[in-house]
Amino acid sequence: MKTKWALNELKKYQDHPLQLDGSVDFEQSLKNRDKEILSVESIQVKGSLANEKNEVFYVDLVLTALLTLPSSRSLEPVDVTLTIPFSEIYLPQDSPVSIESFTEGEIVEELTTDTLDLQKPIEDAILTNKPTQVYTEEERQSDTMPSGKDWDVLGEEQYHNQPHSGNDSEGDPRFAALKDLFKDKDE
């Protein structure tokens, strides 16, 4: 599916919007931008691109992408499906419409060339909606956290429920001898 058009090419869609329904492959570009992404299935794009008198271009899409990301605990590959609403407004260089005429919640971009290229905005939408924590199904079902010699990972609830020793408020006891080092300056 095409995601880049010359603005002259979009003139024929002034009376009725251009319907977009297909898939795009931005896997390599997304992997270059975010090294954490292991793979990306083709991104499904469905929606419309409306041309209002060659002065404003409205893009309303729904993006569906299947990403493979490493688990936050074990680094095992995890498939994550994202469904992202995408709505942006583009103003050509010679548009008499100003950005100020739109509401604060609308995303309005001024084009610097005579083309409308949606690849980077689609990639940006996917990257900003990528989850920060990903777990395998087994990790979600289990409360078991990674551990090693002399260390354990605790969940937030486990951390708050564990008894704390009195040393936490006083600091590391190995540094107790240093607390009197600058006593004269404190007084």
From TrEMBL:
Organism of provenance: Alkalibacterium olivapovliticus
Top-rank taxon, per record: Bacteria
Region annotated Disordered, chain positions: 133-187
Protein name per its UniProtKB record: Nucleic acid-binding protein
Pfam families associated with the record: YceD (PF02620)
